[in-house]
Design a protein that fits this description.
single chain
């Protein structure tokens, strides 16, 4: 179990700092679709090189192809595009707090799709707290940016990304055991990157090359906030429940908030504090309910 928690921590650090790196690249004048496309494409290259080095071939089972393609859309293309656009309207800390809703959305969807992950009274309470936090976050008008922002727009875009990730997590868990994680990761990244690059060419076209600073940050995002967390996530899904694997959402928000305040001009505003506390309380209640299920004889 220690290895699972270590994997969870590393993945959370990667995902938690992704928003800060993305906002810096956006400030360098790179369009949101281009940021998402370059980030995912670089990550896809890393994945392919890694698989070749390990002499891993193409997936052999139809299930692996299905899961990889589904995750390319649900856990890469949709969330990367929507969350990157959202970071134009709110702080990395704001987006990090909405990311904490992943375990709650996952618990709800797992109840509907997985026979062994039913909603309990505590999980329902966690959902209520989490959605109350979203209401407080969006209703406050606080975006965490010094220059205002549009928290409602950012919140809507982020919730679409969160819901998509939850769908992908439950789908992958439903088919767990029928595929090798690294094989799925290859299909996942290549297919998702193709979709995002196509969207970039349609919406933004071929933009000028990013600055050197932007390339460094894009490389960081490709490896440490994309490739590594996803590999660890797939590995965790083979050992724990979909809800537990999504508990990374409990660690991501404080990492995102703190890194945004340290490295950017982001502010810890009252609405973000109240909404964040309610969301994290909901995740904590859900986590405790999940622990009870795991230790039940």
């Amino acid at each position: 179990m220690r290895r699972v928690w270590l994997a969870l921590l590393i993945a959370s650090l990667g995902w938690g700092t992704a928003g800060v790196a993305t906002r810096v690249v956006l400030d360098e004048g790179v369009g949101p679709y281009t940021v998402a496309a370059l980030r995912s494409a670089l990550a896809a290259v890393v994945v392919v090189v890694f698989l070749v080095a390990r002499r891993s071939g193409l997936p052999r089972s139809p299930e692996a192809w299905k899961v990889g393609l589904a995750m390319g859309i649900s856990n890469l293309a949709i969330p990367y595009v929507f969350s990157t656009i959202a970071l134009q309207y709110a702080s990395a800390g704001f987006l990090g707090l909405t990311t904490a809703l992943i375990p709650l959305f996952t618990a709800l969807l797992a109840h509907l799709a997985l026979a062994d992950e039913r909603l309990s009274t505590m999980k329902v309470a966690g959902l209520i707290l989490g959605f109350a936090g979203v209401a407080a976050l969006l209703g406050s008008g606080d975006s965490g940016l010094a220059g205002g922002g549009k928290p409602v727009v950012a919140g809507f875009l982020s919730l679409v990304a969160v819901a998509s990730i939850a769908v992908g997590g439950v789908y992958a868990k439903h088919h767990a055991g029928a595929y090798q994680p690294l094989e799925v990761t290859g299909v996942h990244f290549v297919s998702g990157s193709i979709v995002i690059v196509a969207a970039m060419l349609i919406v933004e076209g071929a933009s000028p090359g990013p600055s050197g600073k932007a390339w460094v940050l894009l490389g960081y995002m490709a490896v440490f906030t994309t490739f590594l967390p996803f590999v660890l996530y797939y590995w965790m899904l083979r050992s724990v429940s979909a809800t537990f694997a999504s508990i990374a959402g409990y660690l991501v928000p404080p990492i995102a908030v703190i890194s945004g305040m340290v490295f950017l001009d982001e502010r810890l505003q009252p609405g973000i504090v109240l909404g964040g506390l309610l969301i994290l309380a909901g995740v904590l209640v859900t986590d405790r309910a999940e622990r009870r299920v795991r230790v039940r004889p």
